[in-house]
Specification:
A six-stranded antiparallel sheet has the order 1-2-3-6-5-4. It is built from six helices and six strands; from the N terminus they run αβααββααβββα.
Length: 170
């Protein structure tokens, strides 16, 4: 099933689905491709935006020391998404039996000074997700990046199967 904007927006977790310490929603929205600038502003490559059918983004925070950003891009078919996916995660980066059809880990730096972070790019069928977890360097926070990524992949699977996305970390 192709995830157009309405279905893609349903895949994005809501604050109630996130761990309690990052449950404040900043934004949860999906867009069609009538304005490619939105796709590019969500940090997707030009070649991806040219082939996408929809993009979505959700942001979650504790308003102090940590934040999670989930970005989704949907294509007409898994072959196109596979061709657009770059990277190959190693066991050291993504562990044994990671979620999704393909996954790759990366170090991420938040735009705010003094913040560090990590992220995963993951493909599930015709959807690619970027899940990024950032924290203030002096903070003691739980690293839930893999748990959140697994939840996002399950929500994508549920939507692609025609089910309501209900996967949650609560």
């Amino acid at each position: 099933m192709v995830l157009y904007p309405e279905l893609l927006e349903g895949v994005l977790p809501r604050g109630i689905n996130m761990p309690p310490d990052v449950s404040q929603e900043r934004t949860v929205k999906a867009w069609d491709m009538s304005d490619p600038f939105i796709c590019q502003s969500e940090e997707w490559r030009d070649d991806m935006c040219a082939k996408a059918v929809a993009v979505g983004s959700g942001g979650y925070t504790d308003l102090d020391s940590q934040e999670v950003v989930v970005r989704l891009i949907s294509f007409d078919d898994p072959t196109t998404a596979d061709a657009m996916f770059e990277g190959e995660g190693t066991v050291g980066e993504v562990g044994q039996n990671p979620p999704g059809d393909e996954i790759d880990g990366y170090e991420a730096m938040s735009p705010a000074d003094g913040w560090g972070g990590r992220g995963f790019n993951v493909r599930q069928g015709a959807v690619i997700a970027k899940v990024e977890y950032g924290w203030a360097e002096d903070s003691e926070v739980s690293d839930r990046l893999m748990d959140i990524t697994k939840m996002v992949v399950e929500r994508i699977r549920q939507a692609q199967s025609g089910d309501n996305p209900t996967a949650s970390l609560r």
